[in-house]
Write a structure and sequence with these properties.
By secondary structure, the protein is mainly α. The protein is built from ten helices and no strands. The longest helix has 26 residues, at 161-186.
């Protein structure tokens, strides 16, 4: 279990480093989104090669894992998952004030005494722990993390991360549990339900941002 979690943390860290590097050089969010999709396609190609070279038992286990599940976590895995998620959430809470300062721009945040590099490091660690741990043991459940922050911002009509962070946490958990219940009712993978729910939200957000910039 610790090997699986370690591999997930390493993979999440590599992806975040690439995105952070691109985001530092390119400020257009749409270009970053397109590059992210291209990078995702490249990672998928590597995964397909590994699938092609895998044995039948390993391939079957991998396919089941990609469908996502909230009910397959064992007690030894929970002993790793729970502390990792708690630490990730504590780090996220620690970044609330830096995130609020960054809403006014990096220059303003620096004048207020914010250590940009340290704050980004905390965000990096928090995201790596949360995304990597949950993905390792529950599978790559997509679109919840991508869609729910935008939904929370619409629901609470608030930019303050003291409201957005717990709001996103609770609404994301509620929606994921709802998707899991629906998947159990119709005997479908939870990843399919979250994708069907999240894709329209992501498309709406992209079109909304595009119309605001025109």
């Amino acid at each position: 279990s610790i090997g699986i979690a370690g591999a997930a943390w390493l993979g999440a860290a590599v992806v975040l480093l690439v995105i952070a590097t691109v985001g530092h050089r390119i400020k257009d969010i749409m270009v970053i989104l397109i590059l992210g999709m291209m990078f995702s396609s490249g990672v998928s190609a590597v995964v397909q090669i590994l699938q092609y070279l895998s044995k039948e038992e390993a391939l079957k286990a991998f396919v089941i894992w990609t469908m996502g599940s909230l009910g397959d976590v064992t007690v030894p895995q929970l002993a790793i998952l729970l502390p990792s998620v708690i630490v990730g959430l504590l780090l996220a809470v620690w970044t609330i004030k830096p995130l609020n300062l960054l809403l006014f721009g990096e220059e303003y945040a620096v004048t207020m005494g914010l250590n940009i590099r340290r704050s980004r490091g905390l965000l990096f660690l928090s995201t790596t722990l949360l995304a990597g741990t949950v993905t390792a043991f529950c599978g790559p459940i997509g679109f919840i993390g991508l869609a729910m922050p935008h939904v929370a911002r619409m629901l609470f009509r608030e930019a303050d991360h003291r409201v957005l962070l717990p709001g996103t946490l609770l609404s994301g958990a509620a929606v994921l549990l709802l998707c899991d219940i629906v998947s159990k009712m119709f005997t479908l993978p939870v990843n399919a339900i979250t994708a069907l729910l999240g894709i329209p939200i992501v498309v709406w957000v992209v079109l909304r941002n595009k119309s605001m910039t025109v």
